[in-house]
Amino acid sequence: MLNIGPYTFQSRLFLGTGKYASGEVQKQAVEASETGVLTFAVRRMNIFDDSQPDPFESMDLSGFKLLPNTAGAKTAEEAVRIAKMAQAANMCDMIKVEVIGCDKTLLPDPIETIKATEMLLDEGFIVLPYTSDDVVLARRLQELGIHAVMPGASPIGTGLGIINPYNLSHIIEQAEVPVIVDAGIGSPKDASYAMELGADGVLLNTAVSGAGDPLKMAEAMKYAVEAGRLGFEAERIEKKMYAQASSPVEGMSKL
Amino acid sequence: MLNIGPYTFQSRLFLGTGKYASGEVQKQAVEASETGVLTFAVRRMNIFDDSQPDPFESMDLSGFKLLPNTAGAKTAEEAVRIAKMAQAANMCDMIKVEVIGCDKTLLPDPIETIKATEMLLDEGFIVLPYTSDDVVLARRLQELGIHAVMPGASPIGTGLGIINPYNLSHIIEQAEVPVIVDAGIGSPKDASYAMELGADGVLLNTAVSGAGDPLKMAEAMKYAVEAGRLGFEAERIEKKMYAQASSPVEGMSKL
Amino acid sequence: MLNIGPYTFQSRLFLGTGKYASGEVQKQAVEASETGVLTFAVRRMNIFDDSQPDPFESMDLSGFKLLPNTAGAKTAEEAVRIAKMAQAANMCDMIKVEVIGCDKTLLPDPIETIKATEMLLDEGFIVLPYTSDDVVLARRLQELGIHAVMPGASPIGTGLGIINPYNLSHIIEQAEVPVIVDAGIGSPKDASYAMELGADGVLLNTAVSGAGDPLKMAEAMKYAVEAGRLGFEAERIEKKMYAQASSPVEGMSKL
Amino acid sequence: MLNIGPYTFQSRLFLGTGKYASGEVQKQAVEASETGVLTFAVRRMNIFDDSQPDPFESMDLSGFKLLPNTAGAKTAEEAVRIAKMAQAANMCDMIKVEVIGCDKTLLPDPIETIKATEMLLDEGFIVLPYTSDDVVLARRLQELGIHAVMPGASPIGTGLGIINPYNLSHIIEQAEVPVIVDAGIGSPKDASYAMELGADGVLLNTAVSGAGDPLKMAEAMKYAVEAGRLGFEAERIEKKMYAQASSPVEGMSKL
After folding, report:
1. Which EC number(s) are documented for this chain (chains A, B, C, D) (predicted)?
2. Domain containing C189 — which CATH number?
């Protein structure tokens, strides 16, 4: 079980709700994933922009914890404004800080992310910042009092998976709060790998919503996160350069 | 469901039975894996060498299909002799051809593997040869009439995982019989990856028997194979160099 | 030719001077490398600590540009103090900002690096900050007016090479000042790869000083940087999944 | 210096002569590479098919050793016929055996390659077979008496570089004749890497002929092979998980 702030989650998979072909597909994918935490961009909600459709109209949200993000913010101030709007609409007490510093990579701005994190902690939010895999930055964010840290595996929506397992390992080894690997997951093996490295959870969206069959992929991700977590707990074998027989036959009777 | 020769298997995970700390651990790991196919070295059996303990003494084998292998053979003739011994003991009609050509890497000998395969097919066995990931060799073996092909991910027991996904992809793309990725799997992500590439199944042993907690790892592998298969069927997203917002906010109202 | 601030360098290889077995080995390795820029930790100099040996006693420095670094600093203030000491000793007008935020990985502290960079630019230094491969951080540093940016390939002294070629590519694509890949280079292929990605230069130390034969490795790195630069300028072929005959024989007369 | 059969070569780079934009570009690229060995498909020569242009019409071949290959052969018999035609035209006493077993990957057929190798050795040729990176197959070929073994880095013309450095390492470690890594090289780092693993030479073609600027790439490859060889001889540093300061400052006087 995963604890973030005062909350406990059965599933270690957080699912984004963007870009599904329809509300019905979204709903079924969410169910198949067995996630307990749904993320969404506040700016995509009709509380923010009433010309937007309600992304949750076909879903009963009562069983889920909502984790809105501040996507679209380029400064700390924008991020805070977006977070407060979500709070005012009773959508959340948790917020994923997402302050983008680069349009091409959608990678986060470290300085504005730190600022926004400080401001939102002051406002009493449960704060989960999305960050690069910069090891020291992850530590600096934790020193501010965040509730979980969310390093990216690779840029949002690229499906490139875990490019730098070393940095993620260092972040995990040094972490004092849960580490949720966020962004870049492309397939089940990536989600499993993040968990095997010792991550506490995985957040993904495009890997499911953009798959040929989002429902099957949602189910795949459920199993992948479970497999990776068990694999981490089970302690994998060391890698070796030379072979090791699984059924050694040395010293046995000759044919 | 996986079909090999006349047999149908619910699980796509084949589990080796070597090197467990005890018969009890082996039994529980097998159960946790939910495998339907158990593999073992004939030369490790007490039919072959009566000073050997019975590796299955604590297990009821009635629910399993047995896939003995010819580990320890360095020539086609030895492999055939081992296979016939297993057959004579009513252990199998299926055989995994394993003719090792290198003591350091335990990589298979292509020439002797082809010879042994031909001879065992002539004898009426259901033949699954263990082979390197040589693309043309896998095809040549299939032209002989084998029932499944078993390319290695990396050398036996190394835990190096899938070193050459290109070759495995080419083998899978060209295959006319099931492809079971065999050897080198180190952790759940590797098993998932093999399945995502389109393999029909995965055979592993040391990854489970050598893990800190073999039972948990057996369960992890069960989920990993399931995740990978579903991921393959679901068709993953393409990899991209640049980011793609999961919740695009372009064209939205300004803050 | 490489331009940084008012200076022009023939070689794109910067060589660190730490950890050589002797002054004589250091001198010969420097010569073999044909570098024009030598880096060193100010705190290792006897201007800083007169119990230290003079690391350059066997060398004539007249042909080199010196690039001292602020290794050992954990805060911006320490870095500035170290830089000023080097300046006062007439050692430099260029400084490599190195503010470490993690003892285990020696990865840089993004916040203190930014602060130190600002302060040293105000003091009139030619500033080259060592940074992680965080894409947006590299941009933020450039907006301050730095003269080159020095993202790490992997942690100092690890020899892990280029772990994240994507981030380096993004940094290079967006850079408005020279990009010198710094830290983690383990072998010639790593130096070549950095240059092939479009880096303007490479800084390395342990790969040479820690090699079995530092002189040969220094020469190897000279060629690797040259190979990588030419390879970048020559524009490599695209990667393909399927083969392309170099000597296509389709449509030719039958045998 | 590299010895193959009775011949000694200054350069460890073998260059293919296919697919250049013109004879003049080919000639200049060959010069820039400083190679001593030129390879070409016999079937592309006008001795074989007089409608073909002479690929060497603009070159003086007196300084080069020619290494024709049997590209286009799908059986051992075809390969032998092609080799004999080249011999009859006084083109060679060395032959690169290339018997393709797959049109999509142009990967070699292990069985036909072995057969052709045996037959050509019987005919007195100096034989260099192109093979996959199958470790045991490379050994079997050597047991026949070949003069060098040529494992592929990845499929011909793909530019995928060295996919499986483990197999190449095992082949090199076990080799009793020179190992020339052949096929798949995409950029200088790949050529350097092959040499760093201990290969005795590298053969490439498309990486140069298909580059934006073939002359520059030919020069890049010359340096890359040199860098990689020196890097191998110099013995690189071990890879480490955690950082190692190149200029350690522990135990030094406090600021």
Report:
1. 2.8.1.10
2. 3.20.20.70
